[in-house]
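Hey, resending since the last one bounced:
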Amino acid sequence: MQTQKYVYWQDGDMWLGFFAEYPDYWTQGETKEELEENLMDIYNELTSGTIPCVRRVDELQVS
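The structure tokens again:
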């Protein structure tokens, strides 16, 4: 089973979030569970190649 870190918060009645690796692609839900379902959907789209020019975050060792 693969896991991905995500950032989330509640703003009023909505839950918002994004994957740490893909900070430009946010989603939302009326509950945390719905947010997680929507995150799964967007993750599948991001990794399937259906979204063009996907920007990602990575690390580079510089010293």
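Helices lie at 32-48.

Sorry for the duplicate.
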